[in-house]
Each structure stands twice: as structure tokens, then as C-alpha cells.
Write a structure and sequence with these properties.
Blueprint lengths: L7 H31 L2 E8 L3 E7 L4 E6 L2 H9 L7 H9 L2 H8 L4 E7 L2 H15 L5 E6 L1 H9 L4 H11 L1
Parallel strand pairs: 4-5
Antiparallel strand pairs: 1-2, 1-4, 2-3
Helix pairs in contact: 3-5, 6-7
Length: about 170
């Protein structure tokens, strides 16, 4: 018994294996759950000039996807590197894009719509975007409810174009 120490090494080795397996299982659950939180959109920013873009924003204010709503928008998304950046940095990169600046200098009107399920986050994003775009001419920012956003996407339009469509229809 003195030489084998009562076989405690075997028990200790099994215990270490069980603890290691439990830690790996917990880490896997955290990774899967965390990625679900990270990749769930809570707000979106629709940017309309002629290239129409939709930026999906997560609860951590990061851009998780960029979609072009028309041909020009899809072409612009290929040249932009805004995915996984903070939304304010992403919008600044879009506003500084030479195609967008040339359109704005030609008196084109840009509408930026903020919509989302988290109203507090959407309000914060809207107020920040209004500050960022105050120095840019021909740029309007406004809020759209989730229902209006769904109706716009069902009609195949961006939020800004859908709002103009409704005004023209009325």
C-alpha cells in the first residue's frame, strides 16, 4: 500500500480526464452560444443613393452583414471592407467612398434609415448618424419601425425608396 500509495494516481488521472472533458464541453457551449449572440442582427441601417445598401448591426454595434439591394449596391459591397467593424466606422467609410462623394456632390439625395427590434439601440444609432452626417450635404436620417422595414423588403425596396413610394401613392 505504501509503494502504490493506495492506487490514488489512477483515481487522480481519471478525475483530471473528467475535469478536462467538462471544461471542453463548457467552452464549446460558450462558443456556440456566443456566436449566436454575435451573429443575431438587432438593427439595420439602410443607405440609399443609387447604390442601395443594408448594414445589419448586432447588439455589440458591429456590422455583421452588408447587402446590396440593387446592382450598383452589390458592386459597391464588393469594394467595401466594413464587415465586423463598428457601425460608425462603416458608415464613415461608405460616406468617404469616392462613388458616394461624387454622387453627393452632384446633388443626389442620400437617405439613411435606421430600423430594428431594439428601439434603444436604434435611437442611439440614429442620433449618432445624424451627428456624423450633419456635415454632409443632401443627407437625411430617419427611423423606421420593424413593420415598415419588413413591408419595404417584401416590396423589394429599400426603406428610403419605400417611404417615397408611400408618399407618392398617397
Amino acid at each position: 500500500s505504501k509503494k502504490t500509495r493506495g492506487y490514488t494516481k489512477v483515481k487522480t488521472a481519471r478525475r483530471k480526464i473528467y475535469i478536462c472533458a467538462a471544461c471542453c464541453a463548457c467552452a464549446l457551449l460558450l462558443i456556440i452560444g456566443g456566436s449566436g449572440l454575435y451573429f443575431t442582427p438587432t438593427s439595420e441601417i439602410c443607405i440609399d443613393v443609387n447604390p442601395s445598401l443594408v448594414l445589419s448591426i448586432n447588439r455589440f454595434d458591429r456590422v455583421i452583414s452588408v447587402n446590396g439591394l440593387n446592382g450598383d449596391g452589390m458592386e459597391l459591397t464588393r469594394t467595401l471592407d466594413v464587415k465586423f467593424k463598428n457601425y460608425s466606422d462603416a458608415v464613415n467609410l461608405i460616406l468617404e467612398n469616392e462613388k458616394i462623394t461624387s454622387l453627393l456632390s452632384d446633388n443626389e439625395i442620400m437617405t439613411i434609415t435606421v430600423a430594428g427590434s431594439d428601439e434603444a439601440q436604434s435611437a442611439k444609432i440614429l442620433s449618432h448618424l445624424e451627428e456624423c452626417t450633419a456635415e454632409h450635404q443632401n443627407t437625411d436620417c430617419y427611423y423606421s419601425s420593424s413593420d415598415e422595414t419588413k413591408a419595404a423588403h417584401n416590396a423589394g425596396l429599400s426603406c428610403g425608396k419605400y417611404k417615397l413610394f408611400l408618399e407618392a401613392h398617397a
